[in-house]
């Protein structure tokens, strides 16, 4: 598009990533937090995904939070056009990872969780899904539309703090033709999913070859074409 949708800015070191304009009004949140922890008394927090108005609309994605190979908490269903996924965000609502309890967390996971901070903002736009890194550490992203066509090498993009990236391109997704013989060593291949790791990268350029080796990561399951 000629002008990027808010809250983007055209000032960017390249065409793929754009810095986040923190002055945009869409980043203002009400003072509520969502929780998916069974150990928190119901009613202490408000869950935006389950509001009566939201239930009437169809969801556009589900978000799963993982620590290594363990999924923590339930799937978080997203109805709003944008959702904040964070560990600690003052006056924030959305998917609060800080409220998800798990026994016997490793020290590596604890350290990585402490780096999530304000986390990311996921936004569904006409051209695709964008992710904005609001934390103070890099995030790492892989999706079918970020991969190079006919290349069997896993492509993982590093997004620095304050920048955004189109993690899923609707038009490109329609053009991609996935064959049945694709062999992905790190698990089943989903053409409508995005994987995002906090602070730690994975893939050919890192000691962690698979995302299941990352301490804290997200699986964005898009309802597009499902």
TrEMBL record:
> Which terms in the GO cellular component ontology are assigned?
heteromeric SMAD protein complex
**Ranges of biased composition (kind: Polar residues):** 23-40
Q: Does the keyword Secreted apply?
A: no
According to the record, the segments passing through the membrane are none
Enumerate the UniProt keywords alphabetically. Answer: Transcription, Transcription regulation
Q: Which SUPFAM superfamilies does UniProt cross-reference here? A: SMAD/FHA domain
The protein's GO terms of the molecular function aspect are: I-SMAD binding; transcription regulator inhibitor activity
Question: Which residues does the annotated region (Disordered) include?
Answer: 1-49
- Domain MH2, residue spans: 60-226
What does UniProt give as the signal peptide span? none
An example Gene Ontology biological process: BMP signaling pathway
Q: What PANTHER family does the annotation carry?
A: MOTHERS AGAINST DECAPENTAPLEGIC HOMOLOG 6, SMAD
Query: What name is this protein filed under?
Result: SMAD6 protein
Supply the gene name: Smad6
């Amino acid at each position: 598009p000629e002008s990027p949708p808010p809250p983007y800015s055209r000032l960017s070191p390249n065409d793929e990533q754009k810095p986040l304009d923190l002055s945009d009004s869409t980043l203002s949140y009400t003072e509520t937090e969502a929780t998916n922890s069974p150990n928190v008394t119901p009613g202490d927090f408000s869950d935006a995904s389950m509001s009566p108005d939201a239930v009437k609309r169809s969801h556009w994605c589900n978000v799963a939070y993982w620590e290594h190979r363990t999924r923590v908490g339930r799937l978080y269903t997203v109805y709003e056009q944008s959702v904040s996924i964070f560990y600690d965000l003052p006056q924030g609502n959305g998917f609060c990872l800080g409220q998800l309890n798990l026994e016997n967390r490793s020290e590596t996971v604890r350290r990585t969780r402490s780096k999530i901070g304000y986390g990311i903002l996921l936004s569904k736009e006409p051209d695709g899904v964008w992710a904005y890194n609001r934390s103070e550490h890099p995030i790492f992203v892989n999706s079918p539309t970020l991969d190079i066509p006919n290349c069997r090498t896993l492509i993982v993009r590093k997004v620095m703090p304050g920048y955004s990236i189109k993690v899923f391109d609707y038009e490109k997704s329609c053009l991609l033709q996935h064959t049945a013989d694709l062999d992905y060593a790190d698990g089943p291949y989903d053409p409508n999913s995005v994987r995002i790791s906090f602070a730690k990268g994975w893939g050919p350029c890192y000691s962690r070859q698979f995302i299941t080796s990352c301490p804290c990561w997200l699986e964005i399951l898009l309802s597009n074409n499902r």
